[in-house]
Amino acid sequence: MRDPLSVLTDAFTSFLFGKVETTRLPVRTSTGQAQAVYLPTAAPGLGDSGVIIGREVYSGKGYIYDPFQLYGQQLPAPHWLVLGESGNGKSALEKTYVLRQLRFRDRQVVVLDAQGEDGVGEWNLIAQELGITPIRLDPMAALDMGIRLNPLDPAITTTGQLALLRTIIEVAMGHGLDERSGFALKVAHAYVNETIVDRQPVLTDIVEQLRHPEPESAEAMNVAIDDVRAWGLDVALVLDRLVDGDLRGMFDGPTTVGIDLDAPLIVFDLSHIDRNSIAMPILMAIVGVWLEHTWIRPDRKKRIFLVEEAWHIINSPFVAQLFQRLLKFGRRLGLSFVAVVHHLSDVVDGAAAKEAAAILKMASTRTIYAQKADEARATGRVLGLPRWAVEIIPTLTPGIAVWDVNGNVQVVKHLVTETERPLVFTDRAMTESSAELADDALHAAELEAEERAAAFVEHHLGDSESTVA
């Protein structure tokens, strides 16, 4: 029974201000029924066809992504940029994404593996599990009959060979070829291709022809033979590095027999190459053109080209131009280019800023892991991210990233199944997972929910071939 003072107060208030608001009794109900009263809201997803990445953090729903399914509908281009500091889960995302894509019969992946431990690349475990032998480019091993890629392989068109030779030279010299040097290279290449028919032409043949040009080459342009020799001297010195310098053995012989370009996964192991040397962009150029002319074919396969340490590509104007052409050409034939970069400032402030901007513009999907506040703001400006996304990037924990898929921005928790875990978490990647597990240990309920979600992912992957139309 209400006390007299409360009754008197309510009567006085009602007299002054009118009838007081009706008191409503609390409602007791189940969570299943309450969802009709308090409707949850979440950003729209990307559809239900493709591979599962994990779950959207705020809604808890599954996050599914596939550039080939979204292309032409929600994506203007199937290319993907992955950003973030070391130790936040980029490696785990790349590997699980490839493993899940390979469950579809019409997928093929090439990985340029620039990281490594214990003398092998980071993708070695996955290659072994799939019965794949990595293409290990190693100058020391090449001297002992290791893997070779021939820039003059007949599988590459004559035009492609000359373009590749020019790119190699321009990368090594740091500037473009002038007309006279370009002419000397062109006539040497033409003569070698015309006269050597009983075997694969090799770089040694080009170097020899540059040093000793044929008189006919000079006569055709009405110049002295000594002039043609002088024009080709610098070109010969650069190519000599691939023949008798620190890169010898890898490119100065016929292409190694047995490289399977029809395998579902092709791994180029570059872990034995100094990542900070001029050798890395030269390698990128050679592999890029070689793949363009031997791997990408109009056979209705969906191909993924994943490049670790991709700033080696985007930071060199000549290699960036080459890959920009590859991206434009490959898009028509079902190619998705995945570039993995630690910091966007590595490329947008580099020597190839113009080329970098063009490549970044073609990447309609951007995944950003944790970065420092200054780097996050710079990334947000370049990529046009919303303010809320920029503000949370420095606070992201390992395994969580901001995904921007052509303007559809969500925060996604990447999930790894128990089957994938031994293949994904190498020694270096274990550092990433340990930080994540330490955080989950403080949230036991969250860990249990993630394990249930991961079990769902693994079960769903069993039916993945029927998921994609």
UniProtKB/TrEMBL annotation:
<keyword id="KW-0547">Nucleotide-binding</keyword>
<dbReference type="GO" id="GO:0005524">
    <property type="term" value="F:ATP binding"/>
</dbReference>
<dbReference type="Pfam" id="PF12846">
    <property type="entry name" value="AAA_10"/>
</dbReference>
<keyword id="KW-0067">ATP-binding</keyword>
<protein>
    <submittedName>
        <fullName>ATP-binding protein</fullName>
    </submittedName>
</protein>
<dbReference type="InterPro" id="IPR051162">
    <property type="entry name" value="T4SS_component"/>
</dbReference>
<dbReference type="InterPro" id="IPR027417">
    <property type="entry name" value="P-loop_NTPase"/>
</dbReference>
